[in-house]
Amino acid sequence: MPSGLAEESSSARPQSLMFSFLGVYVLGAGVAVSSGSVIDVFGRVGVSEEAVRSTLARMVKRGLLARHRDGRRVYVGLTDRAEDVLEDGQARIWKTGAVNRDWDGTWTVVSFSLPDTRRRERHELRSRLVWEGFGPLHSGQWIAAGARPVDAVVAELGLAEHVTVLSSRAAAPTDDRDLVDRAFDTDAIAARYRAFVDRWGAAAPLPGLPDDLARQLVLHTDWLQLVRQDPHLPAQLLPDDWPAIRADEIFRELAAAYDASSALIADAVLDVIPVA
Description:
Largest sheet: 4 strands, antiparallel
Order of helices and strands: HHEHHEEHEHEEHEHHHHE
Protein name: Phenylacetic acid degradation operon negative regulatory protein
Keywords: Membrane, Transmembrane, Transmembrane helix
Strand order of the largest sheet: 2-3-1-8
Radius of gyration: 21 Å
CATH class of the largest domain: Mainly Alpha
Number of helices: 11
Mean pLDDT: 93
Low-confidence stretches: none
Pfam family, one: PaaX_C
Number of strands: 8
Strand content: 5-15%
């Protein structure tokens, strides 16, 4: 690996980088991309050919990618399932964002009680609630700011008889800020955003990467990991200097700055075929 590349590549797993790559360069394009050109792109951020091939194979097995052939070359394209996952990621990046200024004062409350015989489902429910922006107020009671639809999650896990979902507001003596402090680790959330600002806020971030295609890929991967972990707490319940505000500005500025140059490089590097 070239000097400096290991330090400046994303610490994310290859699959996280792959989701970012597919979201930026494949989603909505109606194409499949050759595995060889994916290997080329990922080599720019220090991911080995073996790791790329293994990641692609796992995603095909999971029904996220479909193989296509054109002569002797193998191409991979998105399945409907992958498009759903990627569109959710794009919505979190560009629509939801990192700063919640539209809170209506309500909380979604999820209460559940599952016996030890359903420990796996309990663990899965908790994991899915974290994904949807919930934090644990008590062991069997989780909250999230605003309206958060969880009916699909509950139905998918077959837990409707064990889960109660309510929409509510805090009432004296309970304060909304107390709820945030009790259910969410805001220090850890802030630390992640400060790390992003430190990494990307320089005048010329990640100079060790070879080009803007590589920087765009790592930027989107770092940011998507952040917003997927962010419970999207109301801005009025957080400090005025909440680091997500600056981090969001940096991400949008850099994504726009890299857009044209990275697209030109991608057009030259990626070998694609049209797919229905």
